[in-house]
Design goal:
Layout: H1 2-8, H2 11-42, E1 47-52, H3 69-86, E2 90-93, H4 105-119, E3 123-130, E4 141-144, H5 149-166, E5 174-175, H6 179-182, E6 187-195, H7 199-205, H8 208-228
Parallel strand pairs: 1-2, 1-3, 3-6, 4-5
Antiparallel strand pairs: 4-6
Length: about 230
């Protein structure tokens, strides 16, 4: 009763209070989409294609103890996808099981690129294991298409984190002309996790702990690249 009598005896104050409340609600309503827009600008969400190299009848490189590249790349790619999604990014795999996407190696590579292009992703990361005739070769390496500044930046970010994770490796990414980076319409890089031809690294690549470490480094590199994208 006291409240009713107060409002009844304070018409001007009541009107001012209603006006203030209306203005406050209008400002709050306008601020919600603005805050959402500012959040989106400050934290861009990337669409990322993760390509697990080889698959099916194409085993990729095979280590001295028989480890197949195609199995390592698929496992690490799945880990990368899971970590990226946990970080709020959109990530999909070009292959989800032990299968090749087409009948020949060239057609298979083009099918992977076509998937990424059709989805209009922001970046493509193709995961592989390196191999060399000298068993002494070791360490992670990343490759980008010559002339691609964005590719170089992404490759550099991933390379730095891989090198920090394992304690060695090339200091700089390598510019090389590859179909998967050349024909992609987005920023694309190739990541060679380690040398499967190296006895010690093949042994490490067999372990879930090492694969987890590599996946985490790749994701950290991708997120560092994301944070370096200029805001419009």
């Amino acid at each position: 009763m006291r409240v009713v009598l107060w409002w009844a005896g304070s018409a001007k104050a009541a009107a001012r209070a209603v006006l203030f409340l209306s203005l406050s609600l209008a400002i709050a309503a306008a601020a919600i989409p603005l805050a959402s827009q500012l959040w989106s600008v400050a934290w861009p969400v990337l669409s990322i294609a993760i390509d697990a190299g080889h698959g099916g009848i194409d085993p990729g490189a095979i280590g001295p103890q028989g480890l197949k590249e195609k199995m390592v790349t698929l496992d690490v790619a799945r880990r990368v996808q899971s970590l990226l999604r946990a970080a709020g990014e959109q990530a999909f795999l070009t292959r989800t099981d032990d299968a090749r996407l087409d009948t020949s190696q060239a057609r298979d590579l083009r099918a992977r690129v076509r998937l990424a292009n059709d989805r209009q992703v922001d970046i493509l990361v193709s995961i592989h294991c390196n191999s060399f005739r000298s068993p002494a070769a070791k360490g992670p390496r990343t490759y980008y298409q010559p002339g691609s500044q964005d590719g170089q930046r992404l490759a550099k970010c991933i390379q730095d984190h891989l090198r920090a994770a394992v304690g060695y490796g090339a200091k700089e990414p390598t510019p090389e002309n590859h179909l998967i980076t050349r024909e992609s319409k987005m920023t694309a890089v190739i990541v060679e996790l380690a040398y499967i031809s190296n006895h010690d690294e093949e042994k490490l690549l067999r372990t879930p702990a090492f694969r987890k470490k590599l996946a985490e480094a790749v994701v950290q590199g991708i997120l560092e690249y994301r944070d370096s994208i200029p805001l419009n």
